[in-house]
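Quick question: what would this complex look like in 3D?
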Amino acid sequence: MQRNPCIANIKAGYLFPEIAKRRREFAAAHPQAKIISLGIGNTTEPVMPHINAGLAEGARQLGTAEGYSGYGDEQGLTALREKIASVLYNGLAEPDEVFISDGAKCDIGRLQLLFGSGVKAAVQDPSYPVYVDGSVLIGSAGGWTGNGYDGIIYLPCIAANDFFPDLSIIPSDCIIYFCSPNNPTGAVANKDQLAALVKTALQKKSIIVFDAAYSEFIRAPALPKSIYEIEGAKECAIEVNSFSKTAGFTGVRLGWSIVPKALKYASGESVNTDWNRICTTIFNGASNIAQAGGLAALDSEGQKEIRFLTDYYLENAALIRKTLIAQGITCTGGDNSPYIWACFPGRDSWEVFSEILEKCHVVTTPGAGFGPAGNGYIRFSAFGHRADVEEACARLV
Amino acid sequence: MQRNPCIANIKAGYLFPEIAKRRREFAAAHPQAKIISLGIGNTTEPVMPHINAGLAEGARQLGTAEGYSGYGDEQGLTALREKIASVLYNGLAEPDEVFISDGAKCDIGRLQLLFGSGVKAAVQDPSYPVYVDGSVLIGSAGGWTGNGYDGIIYLPCIAANDFFPDLSIIPSDCIIYFCSPNNPTGAVANKDQLAALVKTALQKKSIIVFDAAYSEFIRAPALPKSIYEIEGAKECAIEVNSFSKTAGFTGVRLGWSIVPKALKYASGESVNTDWNRICTTIFNGASNIAQAGGLAALDSEGQKEIRFLTDYYLENAALIRKTLIAQGITCTGGDNSPYIWACFPGRDSWEVFSEILEKCHVVTTPGAGFGPAGNGYIRFSAFGHRADVEEACARLV
């Protein structure tokens, strides 16, 4: 059988397994080194008591005749859809616009099947690799040019534009992946910027996939946490989000997407209906145990725990940011975001990655892994134990 | 934006949500009716104590500093991959050929991205709807003809061929979806039949996707539980399987796929490497709690519990089978399988479905939902509480 040309088209390994491999190789060569990771955005702190009790109770109930549940609705528990709509969206989304999932990365994979190979993707450059890699897998991108893929519209987000892209280069009829607070730059789009984005999408008859996975790290009251805070967004935007970074569910696997009923194709047909078809056909729902934990996370007690946990990581971020700035390194992010984007002008970012690993035994993420405009930058993740972050900061001096 | 033509091409709703909808409508019109479901293959019995303790402990540990885990490898815990290879495959698969997932349905969705739109799909007819629907979603099928999709190779499995298809009609370079014990017919292919299937796949340079989700229901020692019991299968077959029906994990979400390293494209490149790329790019691993339960399920105590639970459902199957046969209805399955495939010659299966729902208040699954050759049949699922199955049987008389 012939190999799928879409896979043959994709470059090398997915970014984070590649970093894990380099870390393993370094560890094997330096068995004494105490390596600290500020690389992948992987939560390190235990699930807090109330939310953990929700998970444990969800597991326990499966052992009882009264509490057992088999297949649930693929779209998730009605109670959880309702709670997300009310607690997190406060009327900006209805329960049947909420689709529970096993995480935002997986949703972005399934979204490829929703859009198909016939639409172009526009991405912030740099961006979370799954938008581009997913588009390549479905076949909506062309060949690798040595500096990105043909057919992907890269929207450079660099210091010169304050990490918000020039929207005028977005063509018609495309999918615009937009992440705020941004992974990796840590930049957070303000209300005016998102209003311009929505206006562009409506004008260009394009759909925004708004990745809000880091919205709970926003502390500045004026910054929007959801694209639906912008008028007109329900006609042009899908939102994906997750419990991973807020409740520490990176390994538990629980997220959601919002597909508004007002979002229509040119033909007038409903995107929500198609997304429902995708989710019921090739997905079977998030784990019922994870969903029990999600319900607890949305209680007032769970919301307090999420605030506590995101505060903790934001304090880490402030430490890293302060350390880097004291070294004269220009940084963005790290205030309303768990990522700090550090500029190393004129340097190759994999080279800086290797230098930091070798000299400080600290794993970071090379900016080039997030797209062509990421070269010359390093992403520092604030997910880590406080003591490790402090030690990493001491080594970085 | 234009609607994805692949979705526009797909027919109506996915089968089981459609049945759920008809059930809800009937219940609304007949609020007094005590409806019993022998429809969807949804487990009803609690997770047994040892396996449940594994889940509960997995949840509890996430609340502790020592036991917390965030992202794991997308391919799953090494310990679980090793245990599946040793306990369930006994050397027929190696750990790095095992990919842990959130279930077989989801894996079949991701497999579409592995194969792409350029290869044809051959399916047993009738078959589990996800093979065909998934192929339509990726764009490897043509239009709906009124009796199936253009470009899908339907392999009729009917009484006349003892529910094993004529393999000679399989073309070259295609994906052959093959499920044994079969959903919905309950037929189990013997060693000679599977050897003929493997021989055909090798000759036709095609890849078998062997769905073994019901293998733990096999009691006849001579019947193969895995395609890898057949010589040559590692060069031509992927296997998908799941803890859903065995450990009662339908809601917990845990399955696996086997992609042998010996499986190569015409170019000599490794299918295992591409599958690893798909899984690391658009998937983020099964829930760590579910995986903790999976480890418990593979202990000797967990294996005993699985035997107990599958025995329970097989006893249900025997009851249903006996009842139908006593009514003069011809059936297959229900001995080494939890499904009983009942023939209603010359009848429209949705009509029989409605008749059974209206007269007996029993939900079944109409055979036509599984493919053109399924018309005239009804699938009875043995997943249910014993008392409900007994009452359903009494009403069917």
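Answer marked as accepted. Chain A touches chain B through 90 residues (CB under 8 Å).
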